[in-house]
Design goal:
Blueprint: H1 8-29, E1 56-59, H2 61-67, H3 72-76, E2 82-86, E3 93-97, E4 106-110, E5 113-115, E6 132-139, E7 153-159, H4 162-165, E8 172-181, E9 186-196, E10 202-213, E11 216-217, E12 223-224, E13 229-243, E14 246-261, H5 275-281, H6 283-288, E15 292-307, E16 317-332, E17 348-368, E18 371-391, H7 395-399, E19 407-408, E20 416-431, E21 434-449, E22 471-484, E23 490-501, H8 505-509, E24 533-547, E25 555-573, E26 592-610, E27 614-627, E28 639-640, E29 648-657, E30 662-671, E31 692-702, E32 711-718, E33 739-747
Parallel strand pairs: 4-7
Antiparallel strand pairs: 1-6, 2-3, 4-5, 6-7, 8-9, 8-33, 9-10, 10-13, 11-12, 13-14, 14-15, 15-16, 16-17, 17-18, 18-19, 18-20, 20-21, 21-22, 22-23, 23-24, 24-25, 25-26, 26-27, 27-28, 27-29, 29-30, 30-31, 31-32, 32-33
Domain TonB-dependent receptor plug: 56-154
Subcellular location: Cell outer membrane
Domain TonB-dependent receptor-like beta-barrel: 258-720
Length: 748
């Protein structure tokens, strides 16, 4: 890869970070020994090297609390290969892993429940960080536990439990927290109560939090319009130990937000109203005419039963059920033009996305001669249902039955349902230091569209191709992994996977209008003939973990990963060159088509160092991607993959002061320029971005006794130097200015 233009900003800070990580501990080792309280350590892949930790990165509770982030995507943006897509507006964030940024390519699982929200030009992650105990990212399509998609990876979120909050030996407790953010005058309040029975069979938690703020400010002091926040969230969780070998966990989580915002929360600044509009409507209403009022609610319900008999290693059974629903209601101002929003969900819209999950899995431990087996088998059913409706009060549409008098499903965001049934078998076989993991998964996906209420998008004429009938896809996904622990401190690994994803409801059933042969779109039809999108993915690397490097009780971790993903028959809208050059269209043209495919590849480096008084971390991510042909012309020249993130270097260092109960440190995030972009006339064009670096400071204090017992305070300063920056994956929208975040909490 070319390091001259994009990598230069990363190399020198990397050397400084490594010098800090492995030099400062030498100084720490020379100090007089002290009695050190237990302090949380940062890790790459857990406490030990094992085949189960390959490809996984973690953010634990301390990492989450240290950042004081407003949304989950911002938390994960510090990990190599994981990048925030979108803006800082409420509900305006999605995730990009290894160049894959579609919702179906990055699976998000909360307490075992899948979360799928694919609404046009909106974010997809709405999880309140205060409720999170731990985040795990498994990059690439290398897990058999989840089927049909997930090419970029899987993000699993575990919410807090009563046992995480209770004092040692206590059966009842409470927690209060207040936080203040300077940039947008944000006020956050949190309260929680939790308890367990005296015999330990029952424990439960109730957790509520409220975020409220004004608009954010950019580095130049200008308002980031429509970024104000009003977002209450809550969590209730109950654990019941039915027997010493059985645990039942039930939970319910809700997040909500309301307020004015642009139609596309995902990107673009809202253009300022004209002087004439301001004079006519007043400043506030002139701005609102360019926005929508959005009421959003996200619910997650989960139940999980675990059966782990102590004397039967063949049984470790988990049965899960989950229900998730995200709905949005958008309403434009009463003074907004009634006829200008056909392509942006009209003057009012309703969207509801539901996910239901039922799963049964078992893990067996047994031996066959010199071989040790961990055999996993599972059966899953996943239903995803989406309901959509818009109101388009254009004068002619209100009188026209072809528009169903103004009420119909958006033709680019149809309603429908997908039901996936999956079965997987995985055997991890170990002999000595070598583990071979073979897995096979089968998925059957049934998709059903919902005919549009508007005959304009639901013509019975065969030449329209408006066919909403059901379609099915099925196939196998084999995976193979090798893990060789060359010593107690070092391991090598390699994984090869081949899997697929079925077309989404959008891709199958989106249409264009059809009136007659002369007055219709050139590609009006649904896309039921789409082939599945396939990927062949490989990753190789090494992990190193050791203790006692520079001081007693220190430890260090390092992981290097090389990856490559080859996508075949990628699914995209039919744009530009509709059919092969020199040929004429025959029959109905579908709205979506399969393209030749693309390739993404890269390098990741993750390293951490922990000592009693010092800690440091450094990570580096380099990515590259190329598409065969282009999205507008599959028979033309190759083009870059527009969703490839710039090179990213994240450095951090800090110190513990155990006698005072304090920790403090610095983190820097350095992004290279992204110059390999699509032509400016492309629908998927993202403007080139310049290199930039962002610096943050953090400090925490924990009261030791007396009136200060269980009192905590945290200070985080984001964008310390108030740097003006425009993230590439945020479509060039200006970033957020300096922000002081202070929180104080008390446990009882």
């Amino acid at each position: 890869m070319n390091m001259n233009s994009r990598g230069t900003c990363a190399v020198r800070p990397m050397a400084v970070a490594l010098a800090l990580a492995f030099g400062a501990p030498v100084f720490a080792a020379q100090q007089a020994p002290v009695v050190v309280a237990a302090l949380p350590a940062v890790t790459v892949f857990g406490e030990s090297i094992s085949a189960a930790n390959v490809g996984r990165s973690y953010l634990k509770s301390e990492d989450v609390e240290r950042q004081q982030a407003d949304n989950m995507a911002a938390l994960l943006d510090t990990l190599p290969g994981v990048d925030l897509t979108g803006t800082s507006r409420p509900g305006g964030q999605s995730l990009n892993i290894w160049g894959f940024n579609k919702v179906q390519d990055v699976k998000v699982i909360v307490d075992g429940v899948p979360k799928g929200f694919e609404k046009y030009r909106q974010g997809s992650v709405f999880i309140e960080p205060e409720l999170i105990k731990q985040l795990e990212v498994n990059k690439g399509p290398h897990t058999s536990l989840y089927g049909n998609g997930g090419f970029g990876g899987v993000v699993t979120v575990e919410t807090k439990d009563a046992k995480d909050m209770l004092r040692a030996g206590a059966n009842v407790g409470a927690f209060l927290k207040y936080a203040r953010h300077s940039n947008n005058h944000e006020n956050d309040t949190t309260a929680s109560v939790y308890a367990r029975s005296a015999d330990g069979r029952f424990d439960g938690l109730a957790f509520v939090t409220q975020r409220k703020s004004d608009d954010l400010r950019k580095p130049d002091g200008a308002l980031f319009r429509f970024s104000a926040l009003d977002a209450p969230s809550g969590l209730a969780k109950l654990n019941i130990r039915l027997t010493p070998e059985q645990l039942l966990t039930v939970s319910a989580m809700r997040s909500r937000s309301t307020g004015w915002g642009p139609f596309a929360a995902f990107g673009e600044d809202t253009p300022a109203p004209s002087a004439g509009d301001i004079k006519k409507y007043g400043s506030d209403e002139a701005w609102r005419r360019k926005a929508i009022y959005r009421d959003q609610q996200d619910d997650t319900y989960a139940a999980k039963w675990r059966f782990t008999p102590r004397d039967n290693p063949l049984l470790n059974v988990t049965a899960s059920f989950g229900h998730s629903k995200t709905r949005q209601y958008d309403q434009r101002s009463a003074t907004a033009t009634p006829s200008s929003f056909l392509g942006s969900l009209g003057n009012a819209s309703w969207a509801s996305y539901k996910d239901r999950l039922a799963e049964l899995r078992n893990e067996s431990l047994f031996s066959s001669g010199a071989l040790e087996h961990v055999l996993s088998v599972g059966l899953q059913w996943h239903g995803n249902q989406r309901d959509t409706l818009m109101y388009y009060p254009e004068a002619k549409a209100l009188k026209d039955p072809a528009y169903n008098y103004g009420y119909f499903q958006p033709y680019y965001m149809p309603a429908g349902e997908q039901k996936t049934t999956g079965l997987y078998l995985q055997d991890a076989v170990t002999r000595g230091a070598l583990t071979l993991t073979a897995a096979l998964r089968y998925d059957h996906v049934a998709s059903q569209g919902v005919p549009n209420l508007a005959p304009r998008y639901n013509s019975p004429l065969p030449e329209a191709g408006h066919d909403y009938r059901a379609v099915t896809h099925q196939g196998w996904s084999p995976r193979l992994g090798v893990f060789w622990q060359t010593s107690s401190n070092m391991a090598l690994f390699a994984d090869l996977s081949n899997t697929w994803r079925a077309p989404t409801i959008d891709e199958l059933y989106s249409v264009e209008y059809y009136k007659d042969a002369k007055a219709s779109s050139s590609k009006p039809g649904t896309s039921r003939a789409l082939e599945v999108e396939r990927i062949t993915a490989a990753r190789v690397g090494a992990m190193l973990s050791g203790k006692g490097w520079f001081a007693p009780n220190d430890n260090a971790q390092l992981r290097v990963t090389l990856f490559q993903n080859r996508v075949h028959d990628s699914i995209s809208r039919r744009l530009g060159e509709l059919v092969p050059p020199g040929t004429k269209p025959t029959g109905v043209l579908s709205n979506y088509r399969n393209l030749p495919g693309m390739r993404t590849e890269g390098l990741e480096l993750e390293s951490f160092y922990n000592a009693p008084r010092f800690f440091a971390h450094a990570s580096l991510a380099l990515q590259y991607g190329a598409r065969r042909g282009s999205q507008r012309n599959p028979w033309g020249l190759d083009e870059p993959v527009s969703s490839i993130a710039p090179d990213k270097l994240v450095l951090g260092a800090g110190w513990h002061f155990p006698e005072q109960g304090m920790s403090a440190g610095w983190q820097g995030k350095f992004l290279g320029a992204q110059e390999k972009v699509l032509p400016s006339d492309s629908v998927y064009y993202l403007a080139p971005s310049k290199a930039y670096g962002l610096h943050s400071l953090f400090a925490s204090w924990q009261g030791r006794g007396g009136m200060w017992r269980d009192v905590s305070a945290r200070l985080t300063v984001d964008n310390l130097l108030n740097r003006d920056y425009r993230p590439y994956l945020s479509e060039g929208v200006t970033g957020v200015g300096r922000n002081f975040k202070l929180s104080v909490s008390k446990s009882f």
